[in-house]
């Protein structure tokens, strides 16, 4: 077998990523845990205080806080994933050239991508996990099992974005395009994918446009599960869309990275 | 079914290339960096690729490092095909790239330790090896220092230590001393010489003739993607140059006469004359005799120097160009 096993290649980079995390975790505490809580307080508690808790208007939620929290966590998963796969990945490829040095060892492109995305998964698991635990006492969850599955959905939507943005970064010559990605990609998705208000408010065309965005599928899953309002056929569609996009994104990312690094 | 390679690989051959090519770019507008070279590197020897920037040395090295796929010809590294056995080959190679790819945010020790783990070496073994290597490259005291705080020479030594972490059979060094000050270069040469003594096969590229003369048992001279000569440094000098060279510098006093015109006046004094922008080189087995005859002819160079021929002269002879522009 000439190729190194995938899991072996990924595991050999564990010490590298552990060292990276030891170096960066303090900085990530602010962006991962403190900033999202500001959102919960400002949007959910304070702004939400002006919004009538009508389950018919809020997809089954009895308060605006209960409505906005599952969407906020899913949207935050997207932002964390994008943050970890833009500048840091450009650093690995181009500025620090860590990938070049790794490829001089038995490691191959798929191991590099696998370990980097595993680290993103770790960041999503800790960030979304802590976020959900902190929110539990706010009385916004309607069952004990729903939030656990919602947490899985949040990590899943985060990883879908991670794979595609990783592939995007692998194809970029420099960091100029990140600004465009944030302004016309991430920011509109954050605002209009149903995290802050039901997408039905966007009108016929707008609500369908919102429903084809990957983030909406994550937001919708997360919310249905947290509020115990699961329509299982919709949930099946949400999961299928995210899984298919994740798998396709992985192969697209690998192709881009392989082309970039082995000339 | 893949065709069986038609080159027989002897166990002692560390690198075997036949008609090796590398091109870049889209089909139709390709640039050919390596245009068909034959190389055979034996176990335990120090082998050099000498040539100016753009000769194809680095492209060749990247193919040998099993990182860059070959575009044509055949290549076997340690008897294996890099197209199918890349990981196995790279596991037994040490690579010191032209530009440092150290992780500048990790400390010196972690750079080595983490790299050793990429090879699948157990933690205890890597730790012991790292101590040994820090000692070898004289960086033990800098073990906890950040890479950013090291001098250029120290960074190079750390890169070399890193390339040795897997105890490689074959060490590839791409321009190992480019950009270093003379003292740092000598320290590095000393370390490389010790490795050679310890039986490690060294393959290096350089555009410094003194480096090639110091370190290489055998070398090839590359120009424009091709090998133009091959042999030991001494043999190359003997084959392609004279024993001595008389360098003649003419000042502005001779401004009326171009270097080319002056060259004609001394052409018969040596086997050949090279015209450089700032001086004439007269190749002869007796340089002092050349200088005496030049003065006899009433020519008055402002400075003269008689020296032994070097690889620089070989290169000039073979390509019509100097190594360092």
Structure notes:
The complex is a heterodimer of chains A (263) and B (325). Chain A is mainly alpha-helical and 263 residues long. Chain A is built from 11 helices and no strands. Chain A has one domain (6-261). The relative contact order of chain A is 0.14. The model of chain A has no long low-confidence stretch (mean pLDDT 94). With 325 residues, chain B is α/β, with parallel strands linked by helices. Chain B has 2 domains: 13-231, P-loop containing nucleotide triphosphate hydrolases (Rossmann fold, 3-Layer(aba) Sandwich), CATH 3.40.50.300; 242-308, 2-Layer Sandwich (Alpha-Beta Plaits), CATH 3.30.70. Chain B has 11 helices and 13 strands. Chain B has helices at 57-64, 82-90, 108-118, 123-136, 152-163, 182-197, 209-215, 233-240, 259-266, 287-296, 311-319; strands spanning 13-24, 31-42, 46-50, 72-77, 93-96, 170-174, 201-206, 218-223, 226-231, 244-249, 272-275, 280-284, 303-308. The longest helix of chain B is centred in the middle third of the chain and has 16 residues, at 182-197. Chain B starts with 12 loop residues before the first strand and ends in a 6-residue tail after the last helix. The chains are: A mainly alpha (263), B alpha/beta (325). The A-B interface holds A 2-4, 8, 12-16, 19, 23, 96-98, 100-108, 262-263 and B 24, 65, 67-69, 84-88, 90-91, 93, 95, 97, 99, 101-106, 110, 113-115, 117-120, 162, 166.
């Amino acid at each position: 077998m000439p190729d190194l096993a995938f899991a072996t290649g990924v595991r050999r980079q564990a010490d590298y990523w552990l060292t990276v995390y030891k170096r960066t975790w303090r900085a990530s505490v602010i962006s991962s845990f403190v900033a999202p809580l500001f959102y919960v307080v400002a949007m959910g508690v304070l702004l939400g205080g002006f919004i009538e808790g009508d389950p018919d208007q809020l997809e089954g939620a009895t308060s605006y806080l209960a409505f906005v929290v599952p969407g906020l966590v899913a949207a935050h998963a997207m932002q964390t994933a994008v943050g970890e796969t833009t500048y840091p990945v450009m650093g690995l490829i181009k500025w620090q050239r860590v990938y070049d040095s790794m490829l001089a060892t038995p490691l191959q492109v798929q191991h590099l991508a696998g370990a980097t995305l595993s680290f993103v998964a770790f960041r999503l698991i800790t960030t979304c996990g802590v976020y959900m635990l902190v929110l539990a006492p706010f009385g916004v969850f309607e069952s004990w099992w729903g939030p656990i599955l919602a947490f899985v959905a949040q990590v899943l939507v985060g990883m879908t974005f991670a794979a595609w943005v990783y592939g995007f970064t692998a194809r970029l010559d420099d960091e100029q395009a990140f600004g465009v990605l944030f302004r016309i990609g991430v920011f509109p998705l954050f605002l209009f994918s149903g995290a802050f208000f039901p997408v039905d408010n966007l009108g016929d065309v707008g609500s369908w446009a919102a429903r084809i965005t990957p983030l909406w599928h994550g937001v919708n899953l997360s919310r249905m599960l947290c509020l115990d309002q699961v329509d299982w056929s919709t949930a099946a569609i949400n999961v299928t869309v995210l899984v298919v996009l994740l798998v396709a994104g992985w192969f697209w990312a690998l192709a881009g990275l392989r082309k970039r690094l082995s000339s | 079914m893949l065709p069986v390679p038609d080159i027989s690989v002897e166990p002692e051959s560390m690198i075997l290339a036949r008609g090796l090519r590398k091109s870049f770019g889209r089909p139709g507008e390709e640039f050919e960096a390596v245009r068909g070279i034959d190389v055979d590197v034996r176990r335990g020897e120090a082998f050099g690729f000498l040539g100016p920037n753009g000769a194809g040395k680095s492209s060749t090295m990247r193919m040998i490092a099993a990182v860059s796929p070959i575009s044509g010809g055949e290549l076997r590294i340690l008897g294996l095909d890099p197209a199918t056995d890349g990981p196995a080959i790279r596991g037994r190679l040490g690579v010191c790239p032209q530009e440092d790819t150290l992780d500048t945010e990790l400390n010196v020790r972690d750079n080595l330790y983490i790299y050793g783990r990429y090879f699948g070496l157990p933690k205890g073994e890597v730790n012991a090896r790292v101590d040994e290597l820090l000692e070898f490259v004289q960086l033990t005291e800098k073990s906890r220092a950040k890479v950013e705080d090291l001098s250029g020479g120290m960074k190079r030594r750390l890169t070399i230590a890193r390339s040795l972490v897997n105890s490689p059979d074959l060490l590839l060094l791409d321009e190992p001393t480019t950009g270093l000050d003379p003292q740092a270069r000598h320290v590095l040469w000393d370390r490389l010489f010790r490795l050679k003594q310890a039986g490690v096969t060294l393959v290096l590229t350089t555009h410094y003739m003194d480096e090639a003369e110091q370190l290489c048992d055998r070398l090839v001279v590359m120009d424009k993607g091709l090998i133009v000569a091959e042999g030991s440094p001494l043999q190359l000098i003997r084959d392609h140059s004279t024993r001595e060279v008389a360098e003649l510098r003419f000042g502005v006093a001779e401004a009326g006469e171009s270097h080319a015109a002056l060259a004609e006046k001394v052409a018969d004094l040596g086997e050949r004359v090279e015209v450089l922008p700032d001086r004439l080189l007269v190749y002869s087995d007796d340089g002092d005799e050349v200088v005496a005859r030049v003065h006899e002819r009433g020519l008055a160079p402002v400075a003269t120097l008689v020296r032994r021929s070097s690889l620089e002269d070989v290169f000039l002879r073979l390509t019509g160009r100097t190594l360092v522009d």
